[in-house]
Amino acid sequence: MLTNLEHLGLAVHDLDAATALYTTLLGQAPYKKEHVASEGVDTVFFQVGGAKLELLAGTTPDSAITKYLSKKPEGIHHVAFEVDDIRAEMTRLRAAGFVVLNEEPKRGADNKLVCFIHPKSAAGVLVELCQSISAPDHE
């Protein structure tokens, strides 16, 4: 079951400039900056009430964020929901007709297991499922 809105992911070209902008806008510094080598992205996280804002910038030409920004403007890239059991949710959503883009969950930023739901099966929105994991990811 989806338990809450975990974060909104924003794709940006210049992570430093976007971080400065959102630090001013939100009146607070980010709580975390992280490089996710497996996805070819750098991320910055802000806590905003009960949810988070994730800024994402591609670090390689073949990263999903770099490819996304080659076709679309900066802005909302995905909506992420926290789940208690990501594998059970993947099974449930596949059975309900959603196109799950991952065969297995993978390690993502901010100490999470993640998977994505294709926008074509979710009213045009890329949906991320996130499950907290106990051991930090040191990538």
TrEMBL record:
Q: Which InterPro entries match?
A: Glyas_Bleomycin-R_OHBP_Dase (IPR029068), MeMalonyl-CoA_epimerase (IPR017515), MMCE/EMCE_epimerase (IPR051785), VOC_core (IPR037523)
What residue stretches are annotated with the VOC domain?
4-132
Keyword Metal-binding on entry: yes
In the UniProt record, does the keyword Metal-binding occur?
Answer: yes
| Swiss-Prot/TrEMBL keywords | Metal-binding
Tell me any Pfam family this protein matches: Glyoxalase_4
Concerning its family, UniProt says: Belongs to the methylmalonyl-CoA epimerase family.
The cross-references to NCBIfam families, in alphabetical order and at most eight, read:
metmalonyl_epim
Q: What is this protein called?
A: Methylmalonyl-CoA epimerase
Q: Which organism is it from?
A: Hymenobacter algoricola
